[in-house]
Amino acid sequence: MTPSTASKITSDICKMAPVMPVLVVEDVAVARPLAEALIAGGLSVLEVTLRTPAALDVIKEMANVPGATVGAGTLLSPKDVTAARQAGAKFGVTPGTTDRLLEACEAEDLPLLPGAATASEVLSLLERGYTVQKFFPAEANGGPSALKAIGAPLPEAMFCPTGGVTPQNAMSYLSLKNTLCVGGSWVAPKALIEAGKWDDIEALARAACHLV
Questions:
Q1: How much is the pLDDT for 1?
Q2: Which residue of 71, 98, 109, 140 is surrounded by the most CB atoms within 10 Å?
Q3: Chain Cα centroid distance, residue 62
Q4: Which alpha helices (H) appear in 49-142, and where do they start and end?
Q5: Over 80: is that where the pLDDT of 122 sits?
Q6: 36 is in which domain, residue-wise?
């Protein structure tokens, strides 16, 4: 898959909802009801981070939920890329980007939302053909003002800012011309997941859909 094709697919995915849930799931047993709650609330694009032993099994389970578009986050190596693809991930997300990760995703035909934190990193990805990127960690790197500043000389780059994004500051990002959506964990807090409060998570997802 070429970078331009990957970016087109990633762009379409990012435009599906204003918020992409960033999920850290410890127990595969909650995968289906969690996905169903988020989808019922209007958030169908789900990023499952590879930060837990259960993550790949969670991706497999969520990938079978009707309406779900499941991606694998925290891709750190080519091995992660292969495992994510085999688990059924439709796209990948990286915290930062290396040539090895790009090559692995291209080889596996896995659309990628590559992480970038500086103008140099954004420009390097643009040169390779990746026009849709993850701005991470967003708040630590200057927040909306920094992302707006990057957009001035590099208007062709579009972003999904993640890291420190909350319901309180999400609109500051979403109002920018170079932001397609934001990534956030607040729509599926650990406490609500562990308590199985799926109605509450659905309500948070529904509220997130109205941020635009």
A1: 86
A2: 71
A3: 15
A4: 55-63, 78-87, 99-107, 119-128
A5: yes
A6: 3-207
- Give yes or no: 197 in active site: no
* CATH code: domain of residue 59: 3.20.20.70
Decide if 212 is inside a domain: no
Per annotation, catalytic residue among 36, 47, 61, 202: 47
Identify the band that residue 212 occupies on the pLDDT scale cut at 50, 70 and 90. confident
Q: The tokens of 207 are what?
A: 């509220």
Residue 202 included in any domain: yes
* Distance (Å, whole) CA 18 – CA 87: 25
Pull the structure tokens for residue 156.
């062709």
Angle, helix 99-107 to helix 78-87, in steps of 10 degrees: 30
Query: What is the average pLDDT value for the chain, to the nearest integer?
Result: 97
State yes or no: is 134 an active-site residue: yes
Q: pLDDT tens, 95-119?
A: 999 999 999 999 999 999 999 999 9
Please count the structural domains in the chain.
1
Q: Is residue 126 part of a domain?
A: yes
Looking at 36, 106, 134, 202, which residue is catalytic? 134
Rounded-to-integer distance, Cα 135 and Cα 158, Å: 9
Burial of residue 79, with CB atoms counted within 10 A of its CB: 0-12 exposed, 13-18 middle, 19 or more buried: exposed
Q: Is 15 within a domain?
A: yes
Rg of the chain over Cα atoms, rounded to whole angstroms, equals 16
